[in-house]
Design a protein that fits this description.
single chain, 7-stranded mixed β-sheet, 7 strands, 45% helix, Rossmann fold, alpha/beta, 22% strand
């Protein structure tokens, strides 16, 4: 059985049993191979916009003897799929803005999906905003720390959430906060350090735009500090 990284395993854990899956930006194809080998997915389409990684994925598909369940497609995003051809899509290891572009470019495919599993390298907040605006509910989230790098996983299903997401929910993740994820405190601390660096850079500029951004960022973190103090008992220094 193929062994996945912690990040990919966390993504695989959210794939429904018996799903028909498309893995967008599949790279080496390890995730599709695992889903097929484990019997978790009925069929998997490994998709990539570049021929070289798709060739590597095809080799792995052959080496792991899963060619009966996994096929490859070369093309951009969801454009390689027909509406209703899959019920689950995984997109991992790219920026949130690019993920949003991919989803927005193929509404006919997206409308027929039951579940979308996203792992943005950056821009998780933008992904959550997109979900709320487009009537996709966040049903689960996870946080993985591997090689000193955090990975946020966001799982979406169709339907509007029954609760309003605050700015802090959108930034940190409503499920991560509600479930007091064990890594959330460390994740927040690292995000706070990044914010401190940005604030220091903004403080060196005399422009009005920098002053505005600095004020907005300070207010954002004041709000976050209030929420995490109440919910997690954590106070940022």
């Amino acid at each position: 059985m193929i062994k996945l990284s912690q990040r990919l395993q966390a993504i695989a854990n959210f794939v429904p049993q018996g799903a028909k899956v498309a893995d967008i930006g599949t790279d080496h194809g390890f995730l599709p191979c695992y889903l097929a080998q484990s019997g978790q997915a009925e069929q998997v389409i490994a998709c990539d916009v570049n021929a070289q990684p798709l060739s590597l994925a095809q080799k792995n598909i052959t080496d792991y003897n899963v060619a009966d369940k996994v096929s490859t497609r070369l093309g951009n995003g969801l454009a390689v799929l027909k509406p209703g051809e899959v019920d689950t899509v995984t997109i991992a290891g790219m920026g949130g803005a690019l993920m949003i572009d991919i989803l927005d470019a193929s509404p006919n495919v997206v409308d027929r999906l039951k579940r979308i599993i996203l792992q943005p390298n950056v821009g998780a907040e933008a992904v959550r905003v997109w979900a709320e605006k487009n009537r996709w509910q966040i049903v689960a989230e996870d946080l993985v720390r591997e090689n000193d790098i955090f990975s946020v996983i966001i799982v979406l299903e169709q339907g509007r959430s029954d609760r309003f997401m605050s700015a802090t929910d959108l930034y940190l993740g409503p499920k991560l906060l509600a479930e007091h994820h064990p890594l959330l405190g460390l994740y927040i601390s690292e995000e706070w350090e990044k914010a401190q660096y940005i604030l220091a850079q903004l403080a060196q500029s005399d422009s009005e735009e920098s002053r505005k951004k600095e004020k907005q960022l300070r207010q954002k973190w004041e709000d976050i500090n209030g929420v995490i103090k109440c919910k997690l008992g954590v106070t940022l220094s």
